[in-house]
Design a protein that fits this description.
176 residues; alpha+beta; single chain; 3-stranded antiparallel β-sheet
Length: 176
Amino acid sequence: MTVPPFLEHLPVDPRRKLPVPVMNQYATGHDFTAINGERVVKAAQDRTCGICGNDLGYWLAFIGGPISYGSRQYADPPMHPECAEASFTLCPHMAIGRARRATGNHLMTNATAPEHFALDKPDMWVMGITRSYTHTMQPAQGGGVVVVFRAAPFKSAKAFAYDDTGSLAPCALPTP
């Protein structure tokens, strides 16, 4: 798996040999399964990419399942379209159909998700391209608050579903 040059500045997980997205970096290390809420809020305010940390350009991308695509609401922050494309091959959770979400044994035990957001892995991923977004703080599962992003209407979108081998393959967009 080749890391694109635009992600080479990120720290690398020594076990997996993968770049660590900005949204998963913590002062004490990193956790691929938990979004760093403080970093994500700052990224939202500064309009920077949740993957590489650089300023977002004119177009930005959101990745999620069909429900997020339909509602345009996301727990993951916006990213450059190129960073989103790279995520489809670099992120094992997305790239491998049989990869499942980690259990409670991950580093950041206080990780949470917005209320009413599904934590199950979707059978399909949709990347929507838009120009802008808003963000709000919403109640989190188990208490507290987390940031939720609302994408502006999408200019374009691509969908990918798992084929018989468990690999992502292009597919038809779900009906929003």
